[in-house]
Amino acid sequence: EVSVLPTLPTLQASFEYDTPVAGQDNKVHVSGKFSEDVTENTFVAVTFYDVSSAINTISYTSTFDCTGSACKIKAGDPFTQTVDVQIPGNKDTYLMMVEVSNSNTDILGCTFTLLTL
């Protein structure tokens, strides 16, 4: 039996500085819409993977400002969240994965790109 993975909303991600430089601080702006409400402890993770070994090189997170039952982002509402990152500097190419997960580690949305420095 073949398992079918659920379809996740695709996120949009962009760097504050258009040309990432190894070792430089930067910001990743993440936006999109979810099919469910954002709940407490929902976070954005930006992870850089070494493409030669698929090992997680470094990961950065930012938690949504959502406390108690008064969350600001409901299903279908657009959102923008910013994550402060430092561009890794020990390789020329990384797979950058951006995902939004909740406290149950359910992935609400994701995107990825190949980043060549």
From TrEMBL:
UniProt superkingdom: Eukaryota
Protein name: 4111_t:CDS:1
Organism the protein comes from: Funneliformis caledonium
